[in-house]
């Protein structure tokens, strides 16, 4: 979809989803390109980041961030190029990442923009492995899971954006890594492309006990660290496998977004096994972002980290990409490439 030079397309949230979102929760609009005030820049977005947290923002339920207002541009990170500038900090031609929303053009006062070096990696990587996704995996893995060589690390949603980086970071530390993912195609990817030692297809297991047995069969010495992207029944299945003084990075709860919360039945293992389970939000740790991005860049450039991506084309594809992410269609980071 191509707008003329005086207008561009954007997607607004039209109604709140009841459970998981559907296409009619979104509306495509064509609007006029704004005129810049002093201090503002106009960014032409090249890639949109599609993330599970968007479901939480679409609802009015309890969350760590306010809800997305109806009738306004869908929130979300994007990477793009500055095409007009009245801000000395950000000249035309700079490439930036920011909360620029699901739109082809975005106006910004520059305050929350992060300049990126597209010589270091392709533009899309700055939303994935060298962006919020990569830093999330880095924080949970290095600051909470604290893996040491020879220990066993389990990662759920291992074929996804954060999980895929987490698997590779643990492998880079010399750990035995067991992934959990939905389907044989994803498990093949987790093992063959990301280097995990084993991967359990959770769709073959009816309950937490069966899942736990399957994961345990690949972790003969128990589990030292669990990077949890899923919560619910999957956390319940892994908890009994944890070794004493094990660590659990509570990164996400994707099995529970938009659904009825589930009670944990294995929480007593937190005490019995003296576990440290810590929830985190990557935005609380901005002080560590420079270190994380440097380490991730080094690993990417040395070939120890690969950047898996699923790319949908065109602004009109964003709602389906978001719905698809929540039903597990993506392999690696889900992005939308704008024309
Ligand atoms: N704490 C933070 O600061 C932070 C920051 C970013 C992301 N996160 C969290 O990290 C997790 C991964 O995010 P991501 O961006 O990397 O997304 P992603 O893993 O690329 O995509 C989501 C994946 O979750 C899996 N999934 C969906 N519904 C599921 C269910 N009911 N049960 C089990 N798996 C399910 C699907 O993979 P399968 O086909 O394998 O099921 C899907 O591909 C999410 O929980 C997200 O909220 C947290």
UniProtKB/TrEMBL annotation:
Residues of the Enoyl reductase (ER) domain: 22-336
Membrane-spanning ranges: none
Pfam families reported in the protein's UniProt record: ADH_N_2 (PF16884), ADH_zinc_N (PF00107)
MF terms in GO: oxidoreductase activity, acting on the CH-CH group of donors, NAD or NADP as acceptor
Coiled-coil regions listed: none
The entry's keywords: Oxidoreductase
Matches recorded under PANTHER family: PROSTAGLANDIN REDUCTASE, PROSTAGLANDIN REDUCTASE 1
Name of this protein: NADP-dependent oxidoreductase
